[in-house]
Write a structure and sequence with these properties.
The structure is a single chain. By secondary structure, this protein is mainly α. Helices cover 77% and strands 2% of the residues. It is built from 6 helices and 2 strands; from the N terminus they run ααααββαα. A two-stranded antiparallel ribbon has the order 1-2. Helix 4 runs antiparallel to helix 5. The N and C termini lie far apart (43 Å). The mean pLDDT is 77.
Amino acid sequence: MNNNKNFFAAILILLGCSMLISRYINMPDGSGGLAVAAMFLVGYLVSGSDYTNRKNALLVAGSIITSISLYAMLEDVVDLGILDGVLFFEFLGLSFLAIHFISSGRTSKRGYYVPSWAFRVGVILCIFGAFVFSVSVLEWEATVILVNNVWPIGLIIAGVLIIWQNYNNKKR
């Protein structure tokens, strides 16, 4: 319990120091967040001997704060324009994909790949970012054509995958 309190105290000290430093030194937005994210990620790495014993909450917090901080730094340095919303969802989606591949990317006893909840969230956020891109950058008509053609195919593929997975589960 004291380790958790000390860890939280270290995060508060680091955040306070980065806020004070940023008042006197011109630092891009998000740099303080990167320092806090680094604390969470280091906490994740030292919390257990291998990935099965580590505290995944530290990885989740560190990855999300990293992606938001990197996005804030990029937005501070470059005028993103119409890609503003798109890149936010893509950065966030990539952070969840990183969580998946760092913490639980594995195969089952049968040898096929098992996606985690983080993988599903990451893919959904990246797809949503692509949808925001198609609406904000492409013409609306192109988005409608894309959705009218791709959406039914995606539903068919999802249905086939569910049936295939159920069939494989019954074989066990």
